[in-house]
């Protein structure tokens, strides 16, 4: 009897955790992306590139900020060849002043920005004591501080739009910690906190909708060499980009967790640390990052 009750309660909790966030998120579905202007940071490669290709294919004008000049050039050629509207700018988004100037250039070109996607990211993949000061500062600068610089540069103009969206690409590692990723996990926890504070600050500004995206591992170059635990096969960047652009189309908002199973993270967080370490040891997560080289 008690067991039946416990199983039923756990089942109900799972259903609520997985589906309730979707039901409660404010949505105003966009009929089209054709009149939208999106800025995507770190769009030259990986997930960002897939998002740019989808936005451009849907008729959105896209501005891409990245440090990878060659990647930007090939992306621009690809988008223009299929009739899309794109501008690319070599920008290090960890630098506040550079980002501010890039925002001014974007506004000069397109006159407005309605979607900001904070996607640029790096990983060091080293134990805490092997990280250099510069590596820690780079991870914080690109993954976390850049969200402040880009959002502060574009929020004033986005507030003037009838509908605008700020999409922060965090990670499931914005909710849990993993060995050799102390700087990365701290930066992604920061992105989740940044998103939640932004939601509160914009509570009386319903025309600007923040979304945070928390994917599991994606098969891009970032975590090349990672050992995937059996319960967490990698997501493809194409699939994650489809979900992100679909959420934008739906008007954005809330937390997009992929795969959905990770909506159970709040329950995992309640476990004592000794149990989490044991689980990481048994599932291989404890050493899953040992062969990851990190971003160049
Ligand atoms: N790969 C994964 O498993 C995974 C999982 C969850 C979340 N994410 C997040 O998704 C986002 C995209 O990652 P990805 O997997 O596509 O990685 P990626 O390495 O393929 O792409 C990252 C992009 O960011 C750019 N970039 C790096 N430093 C920059 C800077 N200073 N200024 C501007 N651009 C810069 C790179 O040039 C590159 O184009 C990141 O925020 C990452 O943390 C990745």
From TrEMBL:
Pfam families: adh_short. GO terms for molecular function: all-trans-retinol dehydrogenase (NADP+) activity. It is found in: Membrane. Catalyzes the reduction of all-trans-retinal to all-trans-retinol in the presence of NADPH. It is a multi-pass membrane protein. It comes from the Eukaryota. GO terms for cellular component: membrane. Keywords: Lipid metabolism, Membrane, NADP, Oxidoreductase, Transmembrane, Transmembrane helix. Residues 36-221 form the Ketoreductase domain. Its main location: membrane. CDD domains: 17beta-HSDXI-like_SDR_c (cd05339). Transmembrane segments: none annotated. Coiled coil: none annotated. Belongs to the short-chain dehydrogenases/reductases (SDR) family. This is Short-chain dehydrogenase/reductase 3.
């Amino acid at each position: 009897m008690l067991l039946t009750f416990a199983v039923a309660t756990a089942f109900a909790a799972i259903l609520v955790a997985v589906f309730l966030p979707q039901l409660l998120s404010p949505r105003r579905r966009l009929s089209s992306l054709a009149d939208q202007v999106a800025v995507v940071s770190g769009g030259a490669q990986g997930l960002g590139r897939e998002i740019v290709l989808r936005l451009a294919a849907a008729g959105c004008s896209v501005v891409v900020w990245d440090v990878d000049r060659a990647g930007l050039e090939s992306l621009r050629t690809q988008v223009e060849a299929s009739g899309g509207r794109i501008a690319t700018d070599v920008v290090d988004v960890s630098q506040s002043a550079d980002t501010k100037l890039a925002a001014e250039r974007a506004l000069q070109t397109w006159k407005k920005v309605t979607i900001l996607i904070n996607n640029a990211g790096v990983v060091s993949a080293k134990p805490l004591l092997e990280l250099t000061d510069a590596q820690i500062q780079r991870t914080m600068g690109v993954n976390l501080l850049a969200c402040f610089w880009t959002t502060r540069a574009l929020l004033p103009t986005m507030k003037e739009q009838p509908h605008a969206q700020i999409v922060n690409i965090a990670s499931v590692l914005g909710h849990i910690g993993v060995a050799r990723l102390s700087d990365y996990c701290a930066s992604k926890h920061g992105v989740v906190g940044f998103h939640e504070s932004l939601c509160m600050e914009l509570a009386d500004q319903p025309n600007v909708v923040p979304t945070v995206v928390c994917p599991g591992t994606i098969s891009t170059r970032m975590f090349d060499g990672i050992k995937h635990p059996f319960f967490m096969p990698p997501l493809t960047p194409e699939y994650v980009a489809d979900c992100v652009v679909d959420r934008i189309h739906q008007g954005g908002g809330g937390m997009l967790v992929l795969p959905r199973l990770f909506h159970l993270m709040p329950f995992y967080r309640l476990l004592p640390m000794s149990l989490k370490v044991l689980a990481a040891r048994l599932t291989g997560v404890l050493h899953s990052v040992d062969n990851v080289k990190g971003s160049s």
